[in-house]
Amino acid sequence: MASEIPEKQWAQVIEKTGGPVEYKQIPVRKPGPDEVLVNIKFSGVCHTDLHAVNGDWPLPTKLPLVGGHEGAGIVVAKGDLVNDIEIGDHAGVKWINGSCLGCDFCQQSDEPLCAKALLSGYTVDGTFQQYCIAKAAHVARLHKDIPLDAVAPVLCAGITVYKGLKESGAKPGQTVAIVGAGGGLGSLAQQYAKAMGLHTIAIDSGEEKRKMCLEQLGSNAFVDFATSKDVVKDVQAATEDGLGPHAVILVAVNEKPFQQAAEYVRPRGTVVCIGLPANAYLKAPVFESVIKMITIKGSYVGNRKDSAEALDFFRRGLIKSPFKVIGLSELQKVYDLMHKNQIAGRYVLDMEK
């Protein structure tokens, strides 16, 4: 262990389900044989982190819990078995903190489906702390020319939407609708779609998000679900032939958009569900779904290869995450804005503030 690593650190800790988060000092842990200790410099704040506070997913959380799973920083210590990443290297701590590496899913590059997967900021302590433990096999390798504040949101939001776009099967020149386009995931999904040669229809509400989607993120059309008299018709009308998008990427945090997507996707289209509204259900009209031969599927986070690909898009300058930096001590303010659905882009926490 390096001598400059402190014994105590600042962190945001959930002591009980429902919160609030408590900003306080906790011990710095030492990495196990197959783990690394990452000095987190910046961490994005994802809507999943709010679910961890509220405990409203059917998945038990560790308590007390340090949330967060979009942490970018520097490796400062490592276990004896770690030989493919060095102290001083830049690394990202993602949602998948570790997996068994030996089950059928891990062997087929589906490690997010591993029954023993460790989830940062949910089943193990995450990145809302200055020093975070993760399995060496799963930390993202970050080139040192990548700014750590800007890349933080890519470590979950970017990788997740990139995986969803791959799962959609949409081809260059085709159109995807992105529902929840103005949020952290949606703002990145538009850019990945554009970089992959896809046309995009952004679906969200509000003038700020409309301007961001059309003027900054390159979407071809914007449908405001709050002011539209018929969302289904408006989305279909935004495509050149009026038949609707070839795929729909759902990153919304409410249930209703999940019910509409099957209605406006084109025949043979694919609806990809990524967002996880609490206690929500998928519903689709059986008749239209059958005669249109649509596909409805879920897409979880990306595997390690997806992560490397998504990060390469970012490194080449094709992805720019709209974000605002605030201090780690101000995390509760972000959660308050999430409750009000008032966040455009992503908030990133500076661990030194």
From TrEMBL:
Q: What is its EC number?
A: 1.1.1.1
What PROSITE patterns does the database record attribute to this sequence? Answer: ADH_ZINC
In this chain the Enoyl reductase (ER) domain maps to: 18-349
What cofactor(s) does the depicted protein rely on?
Answer: Zn(2+)
Q: Which InterPro entries match?
A: ADH-like_C, ADH-like_N, ADH_Zn_CS, ER, GroES-like_sf, NAD(P)-bd_dom_sf
User: Which species is this UniProt entry from?
Assistant: Neodothiora populina
Q: What is the lineage of its organism?
A: Eukaryota, Fungi, Dikarya, Ascomycota, Pezizomycotina
Family to which the UniProt record says this protein belongs: Belongs to the zinc-containing alcohol dehydrogenase family.
Name this protein carries in UniProt: alcohol dehydrogenase
Which top-rank group of organisms is this from? Eukaryota
Keyword Metal-binding belongs to the record:
yes
Q: Which UniProt keywords apply?
A: Metal-binding, NAD, Oxidoreductase, Zinc
Root EC class? oxidoreductase
